Amino acid sequence: EAGVTQFPSHSVIEKGQTVTLRCDPISGHDNLYWYRRVMGKEIKFLLHFVKESKQDESGMPNNRFLAERTGGTYSTLKVQPAELEDSGVYFCASSQGGLARFEQYFGPGTRLTVT
Amino acid sequence: AQSVSQHNHHVILSEAASLELGCNYSYGGTVNLFWYVQYPGQHLQLLLKYFSGDPLVKGIKGFEAEFIKSKFSFNLRKPSVQWSDTAEYFCAVNAKAAGNKLTFGGGTRVLVKP
Hints:
The structure holds 2 protein chains of 2 kinds.
Chain A: E1 5-7, E2 10-13, E3 19-24, E4 31-37, E5 43-50, E6 53-56, E7 65-68, E8 75-79, E9 88-95, E10 105-106, E11 110-114
Parallel strand pairs in A: 2-11
Antiparallel strand pairs in A: 1-3, 3-8, 4-5, 4-9, 5-6, 7-8, 9-10, 9-11
Chain B: E1 3-6, E2 10-14, E3 19-21, E4 23-26, E5 31-38, E6 45-50, E7 56-58, E8 64-68, E9 73-78, E10 87-95, E11 103-104, E12 108-113
Parallel strand pairs in B: 2-12
Antiparallel strand pairs in B: 1-4, 3-9, 5-6, 5-10, 7-8, 8-9, 10-11, 10-12
């Protein structure tokens, strides 16, 4: 079974540009999460999808971040325009429903560098 | 808001030494507790989890953790480490009243010298 995949693995962009990160969850996992780790800090929750619906977006830092999960499969996280403080590793995770919903499987992350 | 504290940022030890990593959380309600590990160049993997029942939880690769409710702690232990245990370890908490999201500690980098 394929795990959670993320694309790209690395992205280097200039301040003010736009970047779109993609996450493909494990097949059949209704729950999809985005997290971010800024260098030297803890991994922080950004948002949670259940299928195509945003269940919890309390961790989104500001309106420069837009997450979508059209069709309830893969998800994208767009940062527009990017700022220096957006640099970090963006992790995606997925989980099944029911009692297994708390057991999250993580992707390898996308390392974003804003210069 | 809930928070998770890992006491050590870096730990260096020799093979066969015992390992204990501290984790404390601040949340008074019911929690689910996790330890994740990230080996060099790999993604985060679940090491073990606690939902309910026996507070001593055994995970993969010889790791175990003990939930002490009165101390709000969930410390990770391994009696005898190997060089391959070199990794970053993360404690995470899910507050049942706060949906599915995980709150992570800052991570502990463990280096095991051969």
